[in-house]
Design a protein that fits this description.
It is built from 9 helices and 11 strands. The chain has helices at residues 32-35, 40-43, 49-52, 55-67, 88-92, 145-151, 164-177, 194-209, 217-223; strands at 7-9, 16-18, 23-28, 72-77, 103-104, 107-108, 130-134, 156-162, 181-185, 189-190, 213-215. The strands form 3 sheets. Strands 3, 4, 7, 8, 9, 10 and 11 form a 7-stranded parallel β-sheet that branches. A two-stranded antiparallel sheet has the order 1-2. A two-stranded antiparallel ribbon has the order 5-6. Strand 8 (156-162), helix 7 and strand 9 form a beta-alpha-beta unit. The radius of gyration is 17 Å and the shape is globular. The mean pLDDT is 96. The structure holds tricarbonodiimidic diamide (TIU). Tricarbonodiimidic diamide binds at residues 29, 77, 137, 162-163, 166-167, 192.
Length: 228
Amino acid sequence: MIEKSSIKIEAEPYPFAFLPGQCALLILDMQRDFLEPGGFGEMLGNDVSQLRKAIEPNRQLLAAWREAGLTVLHAREGHRPDLSDLPAAKRNRGWGKTSIGDTGPMGRILIRGQKGHDIIPELAPLPGEAIIDKPGKGAFHATDLLSILRNLDIKQMVITGVTTEVCVHTTLREANDRGYDCLIPSDCVASYFPQFHEVALKMVTAQGGIFGWVTDSARLKAALPKKA
Ligand code: TIU
């Protein structure tokens, strides 16, 4: 059922019925270690310029979202300094010689409170904007995101951030199974692997929008209500 108060946003595979007062912007993992030259992502051999393309569209969307007075949520991937929330499987898999918790170029890698774990200054949270500290790829696993969404009466999310096929997709899938409608502005998500980015977005809208909707930040910003 399309609610009367919704605003139509052109999207794939069909228009998204936007409910501004019940829609949160969730920005995932725009952290120094993933995005900045000299960080952990680059140390692993990744091309951070692929992710940095999403900074300016996110910065503009965040400014417009704040201007409209809507809910903003930030998420960060990271762990407790004692690593008690880090499964051995995550620590051991895929990261090469230097792993989570070891000393990296910007402090201990993916540890809360370390410089590399910080959200990049361009997208720094404002006081009053909730930050979800997540030990997994998805923002629902082992966090209080679900309770925050329920308490704020949020029914929809615009999900942005990095990386498209990892934390964005995992969170999108978690959100779907919990009954949230999700819209992804394609220029506000990014991957170290452009081909994964493209296919991950196609996977969202295939089969009649099996995981949600994809639009771009221009169409989304144009639909934002003016603050009273
Ligand atoms: N935030 C997020 O996507 N974490 C990752 O580890 N992504 C990779 O693509 N490796």
